[in-house]
Hints:
- By secondary structure, the chain is of the alpha+beta class.
- The protein has one domain: 2-Layer Sandwich (Alpha-Beta Plaits).
- Helix content is 34%, strand content 32%.
- It has helices at 15-29, 59-67, 69-78, and strands spanning 2-9, 35-42, 49-56, 85-92.
- Strands 2-3-1-4 form a four-stranded antiparallel β-sheet, covered by helices on one side.
- A hairpin with a 6-residue loop joins strand 2 (35-42) and strand 3 (49-56).
- It starts with a strand and ends in an 8-residue tail after the last strand.
Amino acid sequence: xxxxxxxxxxxxxxxxxxxxxxxxxxxxxxxxxxxxxxxxxxxxxxxxxxxxxxxxxxxxxxxxxxxxxxxxxxxxxxxxxxxxxxxxxxxxxxxxxxxx
Length: 100
């Protein structure tokens, strides 16, 4: 399993636009083959930060995601929100289990 996790920092004046773009991206991506989980969230302490968390079955599914038409739509939509930075990493997970 692959996990993608990180943040996108942007101008907080565009929080509504970021939420709209993220909601459309989430809805489309959650229908993709190999997508286990896909979510964006605005940081409750800092509205200029959007968290992203994804789980994918395989590298092939993730690669297909990057080529999906809604990826281009999302990138175009967030192009105007004043992105000031991204910090997104990919993790290859060998096993999972409960926290306790």
